[in-house]
């Protein structure tokens, strides 16, 4: 039987395993909203079960995190992690003061919310980061994502919203949002075979929770996310990229790893719905935020690699000039010694 390259075609789309199922689910929600309930049973569960699927996803994600990271990984990953989350907190404080929890109701920025911006900024696209580091960086920098992967899930977004002075969450909700990740970390670090077993499920789960999330989105509202989504994606790259660049340089890097982390993870599109489920005050912002964050995933996945390649080229040129200068200094040294004699 002739094979159709479905997986390869989806992966050609930036963030394709998240974006394509999300779009399919939203098409159903827009043109056949009663279809899942009509068939009921497992079919309806597939379109409405985003939270259980995400709970399993975060257990598997946690299992892939190795707590026995080397000091370099702790230093580099910790610096990038703290910088990106810190930038999100600062932006959240400003936007929280101006907007509060609700999205902008009308005008050019209709649908934009503090929730959307923080969710887009808080989570790094790990696959993209590691691919870029594999091409432009060092193997040690690839491993720095071990620490940065703690960004995954709604926990940090909830904390950031609370720090920004917006509606806080009960401590039980905050702990509950990170327990699946911690359970996965415990399993993965106690047993390497469990880590390998659970980690394989991480990419498999993404299209399933994306489909369920998309099933709650009406495409009639997508136009509102168009230019805003592009702006949010570029904003994530710029606003987080600049401090991340300097954080990388401060920890002995060339700046390449910092720029490579200036993007949005595909699973970040799930965070607004999770936050709204934990605190209903964010429900008005959740749907538009999901669209905006999904758009930011695509845009940042395009812009970040281009910027990373440019920074890597400049860094290599700088190192080459430095090497030439050292060679020239070594060549000039004997001449200077003869003149002195």
Task: Please give the structural blueprint.
Elements: H1 6-11, H2 16-31, H3 35-39, H4 41-48, H5 50-63, H6 71-99, H7 114-122, H8 126-136, H9 139-143, H10 145-148, H11 155-163, H12 171-190, H13 192-199, H14 201-214, H15 222-250, H16 256-260, H17 271-278, H18 283-340
Helix pairs in contact: 2-14, 5-12, 5-13, 5-14, 6-7, 6-11, 6-15, 7-11, 7-18, 12-13, 15-18, 17-18
Low-confidence stretches: none
For this structure, what is the CATH class?
Mainly Alpha
Indicate the mean pLDDT: 83
Order of helices and strands: HHHHHHHHHHHHHHHHHH
Radius of gyration: 22 Å
Give helix % range. Answer: over 70%
- The CATH architecture term is Up-down Bundle
- The CATH topology, please? Na+/H+ antiporter like fold
Sheet-strand content, in percent, reads under 5%
Helices, by number, come to 18
Number of E strands: 0
Shape: globular
- The first-to-last residue Cα distance is 84 Å
Number of domains: 1
Give the structural class.
Answer: mainly alpha
Main location: membrane
Function: Catalyzes the proton-dependent uptake of 2-keto-3-deoxygluconate (KDG) into the cell.
Membrane topology: Multi-pass membrane protein
Keywords: Cell membrane, Membrane, Sugar transport, Symport, Transmembrane, Transmembrane helix, Transport
Give a verbal description of the structure.
This protein has a single domain, classed as Na+/H+ antiporter like fold (Up-down Bundle). 76% of the residues lie in helices and 0% in strands. The protein has 18 helices and no strands.
What descriptive keywords fit this protein?
341 residues; mainly alpha; Na+/H+ antiporter like fold; 18 helices; 2keto-3dGluconate_permease; transport
